[in-house]
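Fill in residues.
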């Protein structure tokens, strides 16, 4: 095994399998979580070097009952109930690292 050094400052991992209840009482589909991650990844690419900030997908982070979830490393900050309008906030979280 080899250990590798890197310049990564933040790694945000977003569950792309989570859903949540919409205002009309229907349930969102997984595509919404996938799009949130994709949009956030694109925003981070515009603002940060790929060497410093990463945005990745996970199929389950174990918080499905709390809606779309994410965890930010290395700070181990958890975010739940993520909605499309929250991506600006999550970019800001990455920026503060």
């Amino acid at each position: 095994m080899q250990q590798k050094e890197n310049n990564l400052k933040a790694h945000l991992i977003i569950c792309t399998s989570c859903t949540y209840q919409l205002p009309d009482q229907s349930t969102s589909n997984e595509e919404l979580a996938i799009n949130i991650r994709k949009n956030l990844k694109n925003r981070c690419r515009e603002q940060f070097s790929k060497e410093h900030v990463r945005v990745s997908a996970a199929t389950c982070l174990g918080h499905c009952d709390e809606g779309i979830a994410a965890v930010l490393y290395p700070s181990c900050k958890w975010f739940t109930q993520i909605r499309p309008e929250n991506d600006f906030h999550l970019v800001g979280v990455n920026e503060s690292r």
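The mean pLDDT is 85.
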